[in-house]
Amino acid sequence: MRFILIFLSAMGLFTGLAPAQNSNPFFEEWKTPFQVPPFEQIKNEHYLPAFQAGMKEHQEEIDAIVNDTRPPTFENTIAAFDRSGSLLRKVSAVFYALNSANTNKEMQDLARKLSPLTTTHTDDIDFNPKLFPRIKILYDQKDNLNLDPLQMRLLTETYKDFIRSGAGLDPEKQDRLRKLNSQIDMLQLSFGQNLLSETNNYKLIIDNKSDLAGLPEDVLRIAAETANQDSATKGKWVFTLQNPSITPFMQSSEKRNLRQQIFNASHNRCNNNNEKDNKSIILQLIQLRTEKARLLGYPTWAEFALDDRMAKKPENVYKLLDQVWQPAIIRAKSELSAMQQIIDRENGGFSLEDYDWQFYSEKLKKEVYALDEEVIKPYFKLENVRDGIFYVSEKLYGIKFTEIKNAPKYYGDVTLYECKDSDGSHLGVVYLDFHPRAGKRGGAWCGSYRPQSWQNGKRIAPVVTIVTNFSPPSAGKPALLTSDEVETFFHEFGHALNGLLKNVKYNGLSGVPRDFVELPSQIMEHWAFEPEVLKVYAKHFETGNIIPADLVVKIKKSANYGQGFKTSEYLAACYLDMDYHTTTELYHEQPKGDQAMSATASEINPPDNSSSGVIGFEETSMKKIGLIPQIPPRYRSTYFQHSMTGGYTAGYYSYIWAEVLDADAFQAFKEKGDIFDRETASKFRRYILEPGGSTDAMKLYLEFRGHEPGIEPLLLNRGLK
C-alpha cells in the first residue's frame, strides 16, 4: 500500500559496507527513556540494512497472508495486513524526520539511491495478485461478517486504498503505473533537494554600516554572528533566506535596493536556469500525475486526490476560494492605497512594488495602531511562550508537560518533554527543535519518530516532534519571538496535541483527510493572543513584568491587520496549486504500448526554460483571479514545496477549508462564555483529537459541534466582514 511511502518517498541507499546486524540500533530494543530513538548510536550506515530487513520482513508477512489456505477473514487478512511492516515503519519514521530536520549530503544521496527500491517494494504489495482478491472477497461480503464499526471502517478504507493504488487495473496498466510512481517519487525528491540547496546557498553580505539603516539591534547581532561563522565574511553582516533573517530585513531595512535584492533571490529560488532549476521538474510532475490519475479513472489529479477528502470535488474547493477571494483582494487594494499614501507623503517618487510591501506595511501598522513588533518581542521569550502553550493545554485537557533531561537528542539544543494525562498516565513525548541550521529545511512542521499505535491490546505512546525556524538567541539575549512566530508555535503544538492524544486501534485508521488535518492546529492559534492567556506567558524577558494592558489592547485591535495581503497571497497559492492539478493544458498524451512503458520523465517534456511553460502558466493563473502585481503568491511554482513534493498536492486549500471548521469550533468555546470550558474541550478531544480516521471526518465534526460550519465565522475571524 502507498501508506508506506509516507516515510519512504525520500529514502536513500548506503553503498558502503553494512555493519553486522547485532550492532544496528534498529534491530535492538531501545532501552532509552520512553523508547525514543537512540540518536547518538544511529549512523548513516545503519539505515540501508534496516530498510532491507524491514522490506524483507514485510514481504514475508504479506506472503504469509496470501499463502494462508484458510478462507480470508478479517483477522487473517485485514488485521494481519494492518499489523505488517512494523520494522519498516520504525526505520522510516526516524530517517524521514531527520532527513527534514538535520540532513546532510550523505543522507540526501541515500534518499536518491533508494527511492526506486522502496517504490518497487510498495508497488509489489499493491499489485500482489493474491492479496487484493482476498481483500475484495471480504469487502463484497462485508455486510454479512458481523464486524464492529471500527472493523468495518478498516475493511472499507483498506479496500478503497488498494483500488486507489491501482490494484484493480490490468497488468499492462499496473506496469505503467509502476514507472509513473517511480518517476514521480524521484522528481518530488529532486524538487525538495534543489529548494534546500538554493535556500541555503544564498547570502546577502553587507560590509558598509550605512546599508544597515533601519534594522533593529537584535537583527544586526544575529546577522553579525552569522557572518562570523565564516572566515570570508567575519566582521561583516550576513542575511539569509531563512525566515528569521529575511523577514525582519524586509520589514525594517531602509535600503530599498537591498530589499529588492534579497526579495528577488527568494522570489526566484529554483528559477535561475541552473542545475537547481525546478521548472522542468514541475512540468514533468504535472504530466505524470495527470497520466496516473487517468490510469486510475480520473480526468485530473485534483479529482483523484479530492475524491478521498472532505471537499470531494475541485468545484467545491474553487467555490470556497472564490467566496473568500473577493473580500480579501478588496482589502488588499485598500492596504496598497494606504501604503502608497505614505510613500507619496514622504516624497518617495515611486510606486510600491512587491519588495516594498512588508516595509511599508510595518510603517502603516505603527501609524494606525502605534504598535511596533520590536516593542512586543521582549514579552515573547521563547521559553515563556512554550510555558504559555503548556498552560493552555493543561487548562483545556488537564494534561501536564515535564522536561526529560537525559534523553537522547539528535542536535544539541533540542529538548524533550513528557506528556501525562490528568490521571498521571503517560500519553507520549514531544521533541522541540526551534532554530534554523543548514541541515534543516525551511518552515515549521510537526511529525513523529513513532506514531501512536496499538500492539497486543496495549496503547503504544507516540514520540512527536515539532520543528521550526524561529529567531535564535543572540549575544546573551534569549530567543525573542515575533507575533507570527508565536502564532506558528501555537499552530504546530495543536498538531502535537493531536498526535499525543490520538488513540486509534488500527494503523490504517490513524490518518485523517488532508483538509481535516489542520483543524487541531489552527484552533490552537485562537488562544495565542487572548488577554487571559497573554497575562500568563507574555512577560518581559528582563524585568519579568507582565505585558501592559494597553499593549494587549493594541495587539487585540491589530489582530486582523494586513489580512488583505495575508489572505490574498495564501489564496493565490491555493488557486495556483488547484490550477496545476486540474489543467489539461500542460498534459500531452503519452505513447502507447512498449514505447510508453519505457518512457522516462526527461523524454516526456524538454526542460522548461521559457515563460511559455511553468512561469507562463503561473502568470496566467494569477491574472485570471486578478491578483495585483504587488502581491506574489505565498509560494511561487519553483519553490512551492507543499504542492510539488507530495504533501499537499491539490491540497494547499486545506488550511482555508480547515479554517472554516476551526473558526466555527472556537465559537463553541465563546458561546459558553469561557475559552477554557472543560466540557467543550472534552468533546473536542473525544471527537476531533483522539479518533483519527476511525469515522468519517464530517461525522466527527457534527458529533462535536452539532451542525455543519458556515463561512461567516471565517470571514469574521479574518476581519473580512
**Radius of gyration of CA atoms, rounded to a whole number:** 26 Å
Share of helical residues: 40-55%
Uncertain residue segments: 1-21, 589-611
CATH architecture of one domain: Orthogonal Bundle
What's the CATH class label of one domain? Mainly Alpha
Portion in beta strands? 5-15%
What is the fold named in CATH at topology level of one domain?
Answer: Neurolysin, domain 3
Between the first and last Cα atoms, what is the distance in angstroms? 45 Å
How are strands sequenced across the largest beta sheet? 3-4-5-9-6
State the helix count.
30
Please tally the β strands and state the result. Answer: 9
Largest sheet: 5 strands, mixed
Structural class, by secondary structure, is mainly alpha
Mean pLDDT: 92
Can you tag this structure with a few keywords?
single chain; 721 residues; mainly alpha; Neurolysin, domain 3; two-stranded antiparallel ribbon; 9 strands; globular; disordered N terminus
Short structural description:
Helices cover 53% and strands 6% of the residues.
Show the helix and strand layout.
Blueprint: H1 5-8, H2 47-66, H3 74-83, H4 86-101, H5 105-126, H6 131-140, H7 149-164, H8 171-201, E1 204-206, H9 217-227, E2 237-239, H10 243-252, H11 256-267, H12 279-295, H13 301-306, H14 314-345, H15 357-369, H16 373-376, H17 382-397, E3 400-403, E4 415-420, E5 426-433, E6 445-450, E7 453-455, E8 458-460, E9 463-467, H18 483-501, H19 519-528, H20 531-537, H21 549-557, H22 563-582, H23 593-597, H24 601-604, H25 614-625, H26 641-644, H27 654-671, H28 678-689, H29 697-705, H30 712-717
Parallel strand pairs: 5-9
Antiparallel strand pairs: 1-2, 3-4, 4-5, 6-9, 7-8
Helix pairs in contact: 2-3, 2-4, 2-5, 5-8, 6-7, 8-12, 10-15, 14-15, 14-22, 17-18, 17-20, 18-19, 19-27, 22-25, 28-29
